[in-house]
Design goal:
about 270 residues, alpha/beta, six-stranded parallel beta sheet, 6 strands, globular
């Protein structure tokens, strides 16, 4: 009797996997966004809801990131950007910040190792943000992880940490102004929206324009994430699901909505 139960469970798991593969294949037949961003919110609230420590919620969130990233790669989405740690998050309790730094150090190298997710799908890792604020051991881990994926060219994973849009925009403006000042004659007309955009961290890393912005946990604001990149052509979705619970069935309606709007624009 036990073997029958085990066989049934295995069969159901196999059928579920095949249905997911079929669904992704059907979705990939339509228009696919080139660049999707996830504001991975709700890890701490998810942990409290399940009676666990905050760091366990963050660990669950990392596993969700791997699962969602694999879905994106199967759909041939070329760029994924995630908000992993805000500059203002350094104001959280020191023990939580320390645990997050340790988690980042371990997990970044883990997913970048040969044979792991990024290697498997040819994904290049870019860590964007004010790196100098991070502990040195985390900076070393970032350099190592980025170096391990530097030759990958199929897709891009931008991990924003520690990040704030104001900081990114400020650096871009400073860079453009310096480039203009370095020329023989000052020409303020060279300081434009286009030149500023070209000097954003995402642009310097090779990211295409942002097609879809997703924030989990039901909070309806950008909170300093990709504020320049969210333009009139970006579809913004605020979903109620906490990030650790976010999955394919949360993502599918968003992708279908994107495809519907692309088809509507092309037919108008």
């Amino acid at each position: 009797m036990t073997w029958i139960l085990g066989w049934t469970v295995s069969l159901l798991a196999f059928i579920k996997t095949q249905l997911v593969i079929l669904l992704l294949h059907v979705l990939s037949a339509g228009p696919i966004p080139r660049h999707v961003a996830f504001e991975m919110d709700g890890n701490r609230r998810f942990a409290r809801l399940t009676g666990r420590r905050a760091i366990e919620g963050h660990s669950d969130g990392f596993h969700t990131l791997k699962r969602v990233l694999e879905i994106c790669m199967r759909l041939d989405i070329r760029c994924v950007t995630v908000y992993a740690f805000a500059i203002e998050n350094f104001n959280r309790p020191p023990d939580e910040v320390g645990a997050l730094m340790k988690l980042a150090e371990e997990r970044l190298v883990e997913i970048a190792q040969n044979g792991a997710l990024l290697s498997q799908y040819g994904v290049r890792l870019n860590v964007l943000g004010h790196r100098e604020l991070l502990p040195m051991h985390v900076q070393v881990a970032i350099d190592k992880a980025e170096g391990m994926t530097r030759q990958n060219s199929r897709a891009i994973l931008n991990v924003c940490a520690p990040y704030a849009s104001r900081h990114e925009i400020t650096l871009a403006v400073q860079s453009v102004v310096q480039q203009v000042l370095d020329k023989e004659s000052f020409d303020s007309s060279l300081i434009t929206e286009q030149t500023i955009e070209e000097n954003l961290m995402t642009s310097l890393g090779g990211s295409p324009p942002l097609d879809i912005f997703i924030r989990t946990s039901g909070v309806k604001r950008l909170s300093g994430f990709l504020q320049w990149q969210c333009c009139e052509n970006t579809q913004i979705h605020m979903v109620n699901t906490y990030w650790p619970d976010f999955g394919l069935w949360d993502f599918v309606p968003i992708l279908l909505d994107y495809q519907r709007k692309v088809w509507a624009r092309s037919s108008s």
